[in-house]
Amino acid sequence: MNAPANSTQPLLTVVGARPQFIKSASLTRALDEAGWSQWLVHTGQHPDDGMGKDFLTELGVADPDARLHPAQSSRSARLADMLGGIAQEIERVQPAAVIVYGDTDSTLAGALAAHHAGVPLAHIEAGLRSGDRSMPEEHNRIMTDQLSDMLFTTGAGASAQLRLEGVPEENIIEVGDVMLDVALAAHSICRERIPPEWPSSEGPVLVMTLHRPGNVDHPELLSGALDAAGQWAKETGGVVYFPVHPRTQKAMLRCGLTLPEGALNPGPLGYLDMQAALLRATVVLTDSGGVQKEAWFQGAPAVILRDTTEWKELIEVGASRLFEPVKLKSGSGRDALVKGLVEAPAVPPIAGSGLFGEGKAAQRVLQALEQRCC
Ligand code: UDP
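The joint structure predicted for all components is written out below.
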């Protein structure tokens, strides 16, 4: 990759978890096309956990330039190793800026390493707040934003939040959502694609993803969600399509829980298969940050199995509804979830909504980086 005429230093990007491989795809490509030199650091946040998908290859992103192997004995040990490893890469390549995505421990490690080295920090997906301090992601978002010099937001709500927190106006850059860029670019491929083990019947399909420890590490909640999905299938004659996350698989094994009758588990999907499944879904049940948005991007209504969401726009436009997991402990709560899934209304189109940047987020980030880092 060539550096632009006015920049000899690369941009160092930190990724380490599934959603970050996906989020980085459109900007990495845009930077490449604009001739920026890039250095991609894969923190190894998750050891090979059976997800078995090479998202970077699937999304056309070059192999990482550095791959770390942090300790996995505790979150602190892992964070310390990721921080140390990223610091070494910063020392080695002397980047013009460090780019971090989202809200994982890799995001925070990248932010701290940039801060310690005095390198400008760009945070993509800044300003999101769920308000739920029990989620590690909420702390990662807040701490990363505090350290960032360029805070790229997905929309007006996140920008307003940063203003409330006293972030200087010139550091807030509203660009839209790089995940919408990636989803739109994949749309025509996904229309042609049939995900693995997709049901052959024409009936309704509930696409379900669950992986948050707050849900799957609580047997009553996990079994309640599985029961409700099974009940939905019985009532509608539909099929539950549930690509089971490795953490959820382990939790099910530990608790002796099985899939509802007739449910299909193709295992964790690649990005394109996941989007194709969402495109074909009648309704989506998820606790994922990314999937709740992508359901809307692909035109499916979603029920979010969480008390709060950082993506408040989805609730405001009627694309998703929250369902408090604690309700799954009672039969009446499970019935309420089934009713919510059956009655989920059609979603308004994302196109023309003015939300999430209409597929141009990466180009806007690129322009801002060219102004500030050259
Ligand atoms: N995803 C995927 N295959 C799957 C499940 C999810 O490719 O089997 C993608 C999904 O489309 C989204 C991202 O992974 O882009 C979300 O990641 P995850 O749910 O692990 O994390 P979160 O968004 O909750 O941080």
